[in-house]
Amino acid sequence: xxxxxxxxxxxxxxxxxxxxxxxxxxxxxxxxxxxxxxxxxxxxxxxxxxxxxxxxxxxxxxxxxxxxxxxxxxxxxxxxxxxxxxxxxxxxxxxxxxxxxxxxxxxxxxxxxxxxxxxxxxxxxxxxxxxxxxxxxxxxxxxxxxxxxxxxxxxxxxxxxxxxxxxxxxxxxxxxxxxxxxxxxxxxxxxxxxxxxxxxxxxxxxxxxxxxxxxxxxxxxxxxxxxxxxxxxxxxxxxxxxxxxxxxxxxxxxxxxxxxxxxx
Length: 264
What we know:
Layout: H1 3-29, E1 42-43, H2 55-58, E2 69-72, E3 75-76, E4 80-81, E5 85-88, H3 100-103, E6 113-115, E7 121-123, E8 129-136, E9 142-146, H4 158-170, E10 176-179, H5 184-192, E11 196-203, E12 207-210, E13 213-216, E14 219-222, H6 233-246, E15 257-258
Parallel strand pairs: 1-5, 9-10
Antiparallel strand pairs: 2-5, 3-4, 6-7, 7-15, 8-9, 8-11, 11-12, 13-14
Helix pairs in contact: 4-6
């Protein structure tokens, strides 16, 4: 081996060692980001509390009624989360140069509170939506399928999780619950073979919503619906189960009751 080759190998080793050392130093200097900690929340209550709207107004469907308060928490890449603050509901201040106005990177999360049959308040989740399909597999077995969470591309929604867990618990022996990757081609094939039974989307905005049609590349996949164009049997069951828990119609460990505090 030539002296130059030995020299180059020595340089490579030194460069690699230096790179590892720099990486270790950088790791040591990486700040520990603060986690979101509800125990550090500060409270500033409104001095002008509004009356609770009557049932007709609350259920009008416009979804424009907000609570008297909102919770704000700031996050930064160097510090993590600030202490959350509960304060009177009001406008948010936003700089014109905010990236969400230019590159669509914003994320809005809303927390819903439902007043149950007993008058108590119950918290639910926030997020976008998840897609479910109920079909017959080629072996004749009924299967409720939704995409998995392993690749971090699918929303780990609370409504999704609730639907999956309740279906596994209460539909055992009737329907197999599957979380796996599946394709639009599988849906097209199942539609052509008459194997699609129901479909629904789950999310905080519209809860459990039946899906009647999927349009793909100029063709429609028409999904069977229940009587009078309403949700199918399994979709209706899952929606009813979650709704009963949300509104306190049944006692369940997921039904967290919020004690109302009188405003001074």
